[in-house]
Amino acid sequence: MTPEDAASFERTLELGKEIADSLSESDVLGRWMAHRISDLIVQAEDATGAEADGVRREATTVILALWNHRTAFPSPTPPLRAFESVFRALERLSEPQDRWSFYRMFPSGSEPSEDDMAGAPLLRVALSLEETVRGVVGEIVALAAQEADDKEAKWLKLSEHLEPDEQRAARDDFLRLAHSLKAYTDGEDGDPAARTGLPKLIAALQRAESQLAEARRVLEDALPAMPSEREPDGSV
Description:
This protein is mainly α. The protein has helices spanning 3-23, 28-46, 52-68, 83-93, 114-119, 121-151, 153-159, 166-180, 192-196, 198-222. The protein is built from 10 helices and no strands.
């Protein structure tokens, strides 16, 4: 076994130990799996001589097979599950966002034009609110992506020596999407708030508050111009 293979083998055993530990408190099947992995790890660590390679190969094969089927673990929180819902949200937010496309209030091709909004100023207010809200949602979901990355840091570290699989690739994709939403800061000053992008989220919320205040002002200004309410018989 080369030094590189030995290092990879040791890291795979560490991954196996963590899998066994995570399954030890689950149901009967999970506890059996945990016992099986633990037994194989002990055998692999103690094996010597001609049988060592075969025992280590079996342990590695079982651990990697379990890792590749981690989404089916009999556990309430399988490894890397925290990424799934966040990825779906980021995928939606990363789509090209033309005007009026976030809430899709108008059929494609029939969105209000500049002339339409000039004649109905409230449409411009609605468009401005849509764009602002999308920004706020993007900042919050990107923060959720970072939280998921932090939550799964242990599993990411333990499995970083393995070939990327579909779920790991999805994780890398959605972190790139999160960065594309510009929710992260450099964090060079060591401030946790800066690292998590909270200042940008607060700024986005403040913009939303300003837009809502402007929308309310426009609506209140429009109230006097509205027809007076009349009784069913036509009287005021």
